[in-house]
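Support request, please re-run this one:
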Amino acid sequence: MTLSIKKLLLLCTLLLVSDLVFSASSSSDNEMDMKPISIDVSDKKSLQRGARNFFNYCAGCHSLKYMRYGEIAEDLNISEEQLLNNLIFSNQTPQDIVTTNMSKADGDRWFGKAPPDLTLVTRRKNPDYVYQFLKSFFQG
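Re-run finished. Output below.
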């Protein structure tokens, strides 16, 4: 898989997470809005918010095992210092892949199934599906 495809997939995932967190409270009912979404992968501020939200809320359980922290920093136009201060909350370095400390056994015990790696989820499913799936976790 080429680096540009990886970058696009990461950016889509981060944007989806960002949009989900900020729009979850605006939903008036529990039904899924099936309108197609529009993803602007050039909106760096939105992608940076999505990365912040992913690392604060999702990375405790989900990994991005096909991405390195340094690639994320490069894709988001943030410095290594910003990366270390805001997105890496462990002893990992920018050269490391994004893993989770949760073991598969703990994930199986706590959730019935270990949380999946999210690196390629938008490639396997389309971004509209992922966005609607994430929105289904919140009530308006």
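The first strand starts at residue 64 and ends at 68. Residues 19-31 have pLDDT under 50 and may be disordered.
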